[in-house]
Amino acid sequence: MCGILNNIMSEAIYVTVQADLKQKIYQGEFPNLKLPDERSLAEQYGVSRSSIKRALNVLVQQGVIFKKRGSGTFVNPLYLKNHAIFQHEGSNLGVSDSFRVDGQAPSIELLDFQVIPATPEQQQALFLNDGDFVYEIKRLRRLEGVPFMIERGYVPINVLPGLNRSIVSGSVYEYIEKTKHRTVTKSFMTIMAEPSNLEDQQLLELKANEPVGIMEGIFFMDDGTPLEFSTMRLHYKYLRYNAFVSLDSE
Amino acid sequence: MCGILNNIMSEAIYVTVQADLKQKIYQGEFPNLKLPDERSLAEQYGVSRSSIKRALNVLVQQGVIFKKRGSGTFVNPLYLKNHAIFQHEGSNLGVSDSFRVDGQAPSIELLDFQVIPATPEQQQALFLNDGDFVYEIKRLRRLEGVPFMIERGYVPINVLPGLNRSIVSGSVYEYIEKTKHRTVTKSFMTIMAEPSNLEDQQLLELKANEPVGIMEGIFFMDDGTPLEFSTMRLHYKYLRYNAFVSLDSE
DNA sequence: AAAATAAATTGGTGCGTTCCAATTGGTTTT
DNA sequence: AAAACCAATTGGAACGCACCAATTTATTTT
To answer: Among A110, B122, B187, B196, whose Cα sits 20 to 30 Å from the Cα of A119?
Structure first.
């Protein structure tokens, strides 16, 4: 036996194994919800046990499987039943993507765009010094014509010197990928709720007693550079954050 | 040089190193926000580079540091300033623990306790069959006297046959640890917001225009058994969910 | 039969090594 | 100077080994 991997070169082995296992799980190849033991998997895939462990750990992190020492590795039954909701899990990066519905991206209305000195809070969040400047980008997002989010973003000018109204009226992340060949892969977010203020009510078509959901956070590029500090005020019906939480090695 | 670990036996090395590094980071031992390279750390701690990598990866996962291949490992500036909110990050298991303040656990008032047939939604979430029964547990939680959460929990009777009013007036999770030697380490949650209803306003002392935050989710025991389906309605000021999101190996 | 014990199974931890890949900084060339 | 090049640094991937710890299963004892 000599491995069953169709490795699309340049992908790490553990990534490939992880993807393959996930697919098999989804296709119901483990009817009793029990995976083969690690040593067997290593042999089947023709890789070391270390690599198998790594692949499995990724799946544990994703909530797809769980392990039980001495007993084995099992599929999370919820993943099979309800794997749809696992799509979004832990991935709220790139608003355009997160809120895509039936392939339709939200439209963007640019409300404001200017350069301002960074406030202390922004300096802190974006790793800036006194006297540094940031773009202030205020946008209203609509989904099929319905406004659902007011977004205030702050981007250091020295990170993206070339920003202009035209770029900012579309996806900034696409612009980054195309020009700087960087991706935005990390974010630190806080999720809150508040009563709506007058502006919220006007722009998001809310009644006085209806609240907004707030997602505030910092987005990082894959090299660790903080790209944006963003405050998003959402129509409350559109705030729906899914989280799979695991308390293992802490 | 031969290691600087005060290892409180029975803790894994990488856990110890991770904890030690986190403390050092917090105490500002890396003023330039740059950690020593992995090979040096290995030598300093007197452990293998593998163990250092593992410890560092935990910290990356927690959002405390980030790595940049070819360049080094750096402290997330956000962690330094705002490390308080990192405490909760990714750990909303066991409400009593999550909302502990200065070591003071929230008090519990039992509002309702009965056995009912599981609704279809509950059956789905808790992996039950038609005709199965669940406990319905309705509680009000207070922090230093101030009510902040209405909690409705549903627990399958065949998972915890011995539940009674007395147990349910305290921490169910403690009860499980003591009697079944299981821990609750995983949850799948959805976070939302809504206008408050009359009951919310009464119990949580909210004004009419003030909303509630809603955390709804399923809690699992470490062997994968779904333990509880819970809906928590929070005073909006107490809803503050922190998430470090990473889109790496997916 | 029931309980205690032993063995096999299975995941966890840790080490050390080899090689690779991205980044940085200095050096040479143009 | 500016650009191209080269070398050193630093994290990433993978392997394979040795041993530990929790659990399950089989065996023995009571």
So the answer is: A110
